[in-house]
Amino acid sequence: MRVLHVITGLGVGGAEQQLRLLLRHLPMRCDVLTLTNPGPVADGLRADGVRVVHLGMRGNRDLGALPRLVRFLRRGGYDLVHTHLYRACLYGRIAARLAGVGAVVATEHSLGDGEIEGRPLSAGVRRLYLAGERLGSATVAVSDTVAARLAAWGVPAGRVHVVPNGIEAARFRFDAGVRRATRARTGLPERAFVVGGVGRLVPGKRFDALVRAVAALPGAHLLLAGDGPERGALRALAAELGAQHRIHLVGERDPLGEDGGGRAPGVPQLLAAMDVFVSASREEAFGLAVVEALAAGLPVLHVTCPAVDDLPAVQAPGARRIGTGGEELLAALRGHMEAGANRLPVPPVVRHYDVARSAERLLDVYRLALHGAGAAPLRTPPRAAAGPEPGPGAAADAVPAPARPAVAGQPPHALAARAAGRPGNGPRPGSGSAPGPRPGPDTGPPRPGGGPARPGNG
């Protein structure tokens, strides 16, 4: 049994980190191929003993990547291909079919009502997504909310399987000693009231609302873990409000623990240093950072979080849903500040999202996909040898005729042409001039500063 995971990039992000966690709990050896950006998560995967290959894709319209991917799949002899994120799902499904891989699973990590992977959805992007989806065996939704969105798009219910994101809860268990040490290392006063957030610094996360609210609370501090194009704007806003010394933007941090040889506290350590966690984004597909904060015993304020909202309230008594208004956020934070720091018991929702349970559910999806492809039953024999790793300059194989029709009589290579944005062939996903982090399904070039999605979120 040989499984290949294909992902758009491996920078620090929720989907990327979730892949790393799942591979630790799957009972077979898997390879990972990243189309672009073999970033920090690639290093973590290699440290875990996972083979990681960089395809060297130059942009959404780099059609030369398709035959390189087909050749890699043929040489690897993979029984199942599992794709993650928009570009990888589109190209990975096409390549798998051209290579004769019968079982193809895709996980939808970041589908919102009006966005996908943080970028606006258009009718063209939706059509292209649906065309590619039909080439797969099954689509995994990370929450009931995402499954409902896929159903509203017209994806047949029998093709959609909910496998929620998961965490290793023990990593986030609160420790008072870690709290003191982390505050000292990040310049936070030992007794200060600290508001926290984790995520990609992009407009959709609305971290500016946190900056404004904390600036209006004398003595309060804001601790933000993440990086992105809004970093400069957030610093400027803090200075404008006279709160620059109370706003701490610490950059990307390892979602699983300490990185840099223990020199920089990771997300679990930063959560220990916080007193309340806020997720202000209007759209989420899951809300992994909220679950991690609850595992750390933090009270949570969130605008939307399917991981919590899809369950009965008793599962997460420490989570409170708020609106998008600044006054409501400020009032809620003031109430927590006046009540003082108060660590909560770990709620049932954390056990519900144990990553080992998610891995078991994913294995059920694999079994269904393999059964539909007529493959042998799922088992875990010794790992087979693989062919050489392709690089950006790898030669392309000739593309064979597809084994079966794809969408509405169009073969897979026609979908590839549509993905490239050729005239008259549908929308043109964004392109980049060089390999970069998680390019989205936009209809123009990526925004300046575009990069991997927020850490800790899915």
From TrEMBL:
GO terms for molecular function: glycosyltransferase activity. Residues 436-449 have a biased composition (Pro residues). Signal peptide: none annotated. Residues 376-422 have a biased composition (Low complexity). Keywords: Glycosyltransferase, Transferase. It holds the Pfam family Glycos_transf_1. Gene3D superfamilies: Glycogen Phosphorylase B. This is D-inositol 3-phosphate glycosyltransferase. It comes from Streptomyces globosus.
